[in-house]
């Protein structure tokens, strides 16, 4: 894991001097999920589903590849 990846949101809030729950540190989020959702397990049929994307403070757009390789919102 890279060093900057270990710096989580709680530490950023604490280091910024803000109290948790004050103004958010960032606004709209664009999450482009272009990794392979296909499960390849021998003799098993499986399908993935997005169960939750987490709490949203502002606006979140998530882009997913469809069965044709195009991106869907």
Task: Write a concise keyword list for the protein shown above.
73 residues, alpha+beta, three-stranded mixed sheet, 1 helix, 3 strands, transferase, nucleotidyltransferase activity
Q: How are the SSEs ordered, and which strands pair?
A:
Elements: H1 9-16, E1 29-32, E2 60-65, E3 71-72
Parallel strand pairs: 1-2
Antiparallel strand pairs: 2-3
EC number: 2.7.7.-
Keywords: Nucleotidyltransferase, Transferase
GO molecular function: nucleotidyltransferase activity
What does this structure look like?
- The protein is of the alpha+beta class and 73 residues long.
- It has a domain at 24-73.
- Helices cover 11% and strands 16% of the residues.
- It has 1 helix and 3 strands.
- The chain has one helix at residues 9-16; strands spanning 29-32, 60-65, 71-72.
- Strands 1-2-3 form a 3-stranded mixed sheet, with no helix packed on it.
- The mean pLDDT is 77.
